[in-house]
Design brief:
The complex is a heterodimer of chains A (415) and B (134). Chain A contains 15 helices and 14 strands. Chain A is α/β, with parallel strands linked by helices and 415 residues long. Chain A has three domains: 172 residues, Aconitase, domain 3; 96 residues, no CATH class; 124 residues, Aconitase, domain 3 (2-Layer Sandwich). In chain A, helix 7 links the parallel strand 6 and strand 7. Chain B is an alpha/beta fold. Chain B has four helices and seven strands; from the N terminus they run ββαβαβαβαββ. Classes of the chains: A alpha/beta (415), B alpha/beta (134).
Chain lengths: 415, 134
């Protein structure tokens, strides 16, 4: 991979150890991944939660932050995807050592010049990239959303990759930065247009289960209505979780799809039965329900309103815990309008913090003896099944009905 | 002795170890107990299979942008695999291996999950893009 004279000086350590680490990381990984050169970026989006980083990752950040201030100024804006862990989780057995690590993490990241502002999570409005702009997104759902819904260009710049990109101000030019890698390799015709966010997530999961590798960019056809931003977010989160794919196109919806109207690929039918299979509670049917956890991606305002309507006049069963992860602005609005009081009186806990699977979900499971879990997010269901839970994804309606009943209720198939 | 050559550059130092072969995709985030190196997700490997010190062979990496942090933590805890071999590693796993300092090789003509066998002794040489199997 070609480096400019400036980049070579960075690699050689002329600007200090933090920049040298960043440039070595970009050069090593860029070479293996087939990049020909580095391209400048305006900002990077850093995924670094306590659950994943552990002691080693936080030690690394603290060591990097020991550099003199002038030797750790990011060349690009650095934003953090992974905000604080909800303090209320201490009530559910999250150990103090985890919260201590969390504070060390946030302190170290702030010292590296990260903009500790979380308004960009979920709605992606701050700082929205424009069509065709190369960026470095480290959060799975945000990266695939930026590529697909906005037409920006990013690979999954996982964990320290986004940090290296922000410090150096460049990202390796390969993968989804290049036109030829954004062309669909598979075409799916959808039999049924999803009607809930859980179903939109199921659509992403069902396609992800069909894909063989991350280069098989899907083009989705046959939707009868525009999904909207939240649904695009859920499709992307599930697609990335099940198949590690970083881009999807939807005919008539996403900005690059029209380029592939005449693409010569076989059309594969995606059946309604496949969607129903992803959001089925059949394997847990009738079991005592320990936990319902909502929000991955975090719940938007309209989901909070729907949740309040579903719980209205009801009470979550004593044997079940209902946690809803919501952004701070929506929680404050819910408090202003009295919805938060109603939800909490019904037994629903609203939490302002990073997603549950990044919040010490394993020690919390052990502290409470929880196993059987429902969620409205196929992505979260997939992750929790790899973390000792027996989890299933289903609609918000079935999640709430099961939480009220205290056991898993089978949702109605719509095929 | 059987020699496999990769068409792509690899990462890290030469490594020797026993193969742990998965017939499927692999995620450090979604499948593993970082503290023990054992599999939390049922059905991926035999019960009690542990990646610590092994050369992990899998078809491809699947989702999990947290893999970089998790593999580095596994190195600290002594539960990390000695090396990673894939048919198609994918960018997240390349970044994770580079950050954790774990050797990695992918991009073979053969299906590595078919030609390499469980507990086979392997010599991995990323600089020369090759694996030698006992």
């Amino acid at each position: 991979m070609q480096l400019t004279a400036h980049q070579q000086k960075m690699l050689d350590g002329n600007f200090g150890p933090a920049y040298a680490w960043a440039m070595k990381f970009l050069a090593d990984t860029g070479s293996v991944l087939g990049a020909d050169r580095l391209i400048p970026i305006r900002y990077a989006f850093f995924m670094a939660d306590t659950d994943a980083m552990g002691e080693a990752g936080i030690n690394f950040m603290e060591e990097l932050a020991l550099a003199a201030p002038e030797q750790r100024i990011p060349a690009a804006n650095l934003y953090l995807e992974s905000r604080q862990t909800a303090a209320e989780l201490a009530d559910y057995g999250l150990p103090q050592w985890f919260m201590d690590l969390d504070q060390r993490r946030l302190n170290a990241i702030a010292k590296l010049g990260c903009i500790m502002e979380y308004g960009h999570i979920n709605n992606h409005s701050i700082p929205a990239p424009c069509f065709g702009e190369s960026i470095a997104m480290g959060s799975t759902p945000t990266a695939i959303y930026a590529n697909s819904a906005l037409g920006a260009r990013t690979n999954f710049e996982a964990g320290p990759a986004a940090l290296a990109s922000a410090l150096a101000g460049y990202v390796p030019r390969w993968g989804l930065h290049l036109d030829e890698n954004r062309v669909p390799k598979r075409v799916f015709e959808v039999e049924r247009t999803p009607q809930s966010l859980a179903e939109w997530g199921a659509l992403g999961a069902a396609i992800g289960l069909r894909l063989n590798n991350a280069s098989e960019i899907p083009l989705i056809k046959g939707l009868r209505e525009h999904p909207g931003a939240l649904a695009l977010n859920h499709i992307g989160a599930s697609l990335a979780s099940y198949a590690a794919v970083g881009l999807f196109h939807i005919e008539g919806v996403t900005p690059e799809a029209h380029q592939f109207n005449d693409i010569d690929l076989p059309v594969e039918r995606l059946t309604a039965t496949e969607l129903d299979a992803v959001i089925s509670t059949e394997k847990l049917d009738g079991q005592v329900l320990d936990l319902v956890v909502l929000g991955a991606p975090q719940m938007g305002w309209n989901e909070v309103v729907e949740l309040a309507q579903l719980l209205d006049g009801n009470q979550v069963a004593d044997c079940t815990t209902l946690l809803a992860f919501v952004d701070k602005g929506s929680i404050e609005t819910a408090r202003t309008l009295g919805l938060a009081d109603k939800l909490e009186a019904a037994g629903c806990r609203l939490l302002d913090g990073i997603d549950y699977f990044q919040s010490g979900s394993e020690p919390i499971r052990q502290a409470n003896g929880w196993t059987t879990t429902l969620t409205a997010s196929p992505k979260l269901g997939n992750i929790l099944n790899g973390a000792g839970y027996k989890a299933a994804a289903t609609t918000l309606e079935t999640c709430v009905a099961s939480a009220i009943a205290g056991h898993v209720i089978q949702g109605e198939a719509k095929a | 002795m059987n020699k496999l050559k990769s068409s792509k550059p690899g990462l890290g130092a030469a490594v020797e170890g026993k193969a742990l072969v998965l017939k499927c995709a692999f995620s450090a985030r979604y499948d593993l107990d970082v503290k023990t190196g054992k599999f939390l997700r049922p059905g991926l490997a035999t019960e009690d299979a542990c990646v610590a010190g092994k050369i992990l062979i899998a078809d491809r990496a699947k989702g999990g942008v947290a893999s970089s942090w998790l593999l580095r933590e596994m190195v600290r805890l002594g539960t990390a695999p000695a090396a990673l071999v894939f048919n198609n590693a994918g960018p997240v796993m390349v970044q994770a291996a580079a950050f954790a300092g774990i050797s990695l090789l992918d991009g073979f003509e053969e299906d590595v999950t078919e030609v390499l066998t469980q507990d086979q002794q392997l010599w991995l040489d990323p600089a020369n893009r090759e694996i030698v199997a006992e």
